[in-house]
Amino acid sequence: MVGLLGSLVELDKAGLLDCILYLSGVSGSTWCMATLYKEPDWSTKLDTVKDKIIERLSSSKVSWGNAYNKLKKYWEREGKNGKDFSLTDFWAAIVITTYVKE
């Protein structure tokens, strides 16, 4: 997440951000992309988006109740229907809540 954000900021500083047609990513970079795409004109407002990401990542607010409710909702939608639901899902919810604050 931080790596992609840093690359985009540096591309913007170098005046090369306009050359990008598509973004792709895996793992943490998709969290950055999801935040970018919430802002329709993100490429012209990259500083604002960057500040929002930094603020969220540096906050100490973690809502364990919200994380539990999301995990429970996912279980009700997927796990009860016989689809895969494992300790990995639980672990991912804890990691995302802890580090990404989302």
From TrEMBL:
Keywords: Hydrolase, Lipid degradation, Lipid metabolism. InterPro entries: Acyl_Trfase/lysoPLipase (IPR016035), LysoPLipase_cat_dom (IPR002642). It comes from the Eukaryota. One of its GO terms (molecular function) is hydrolase activity. Gene3D superfamilies: Cytosolic phospholipase A2 catalytic domain. GO terms for biological process: lipid catabolic process. Residues 1-102 form the PLA2c domain. The keyword Hydrolase applies. SUPFAM superfamilies: FabD/lysophospholipase-like. This is PLA2c domain-containing protein.
